[in-house]
Design the sequence.
């Protein structure tokens, strides 16, 4: 199984199903099973920002109890979208070889990634959190 290392709190946001897209500066042709590995690094400032803080708290997490250095979930990497525009009318536009999609900038998803034009949004499905 392939794995991707993601800093906290974003790895846990994926594990609890709150983050469905992992944004990267590069595309991937890989599709299939993916282990979500939480890096040892925690972005403490991000953990205190909303809506991240509230979403983590809903599941009992704080900056002090996020798992690090471990696989926290598995997922299927389903599709890779190119971010076409930063924001147009409050909507982020995503484009892939198969289809286009979008989401509203008021959605938490927008705050859980880096959606600048030219970046890539890796769509994750069938996310399963691994018990500690």
Sequence:
């Amino acid at each position: 199984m392939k794995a991707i290392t993601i800093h906290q709190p974003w790895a846990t946001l994926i594990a609890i199903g709150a983050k469905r897209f992992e944004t990267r500066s590069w595309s991937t042709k890989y599709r299939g099973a993916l282990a979500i590995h939480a890096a040892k690094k925690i972005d403490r400032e991000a953990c205190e920002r909303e809506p991240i803080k509230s979403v983590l708290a809903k599941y009992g997490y704080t900056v002090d109890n996020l798992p690090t250095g471990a696989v926290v979930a598995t997922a299927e990497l389903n599709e890779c979208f190119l971010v076409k525009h930063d924001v147009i009318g409050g909507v982020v536009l995503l484009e892939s070889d198969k289809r286009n999609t979008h989401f509203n900038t008021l959605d938490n998803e927008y705050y859980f990634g880096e959606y600048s034009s030219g970046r890539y949004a890796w769509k994750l499905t069938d996310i399963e959190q691994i018990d500690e």
User: Anything to note?
Assistant: DSSP finds four helices and seven strands in the chain. Residues 52-58 form the longest helix (7 residues). The chain has a mean pLDDT of 93.
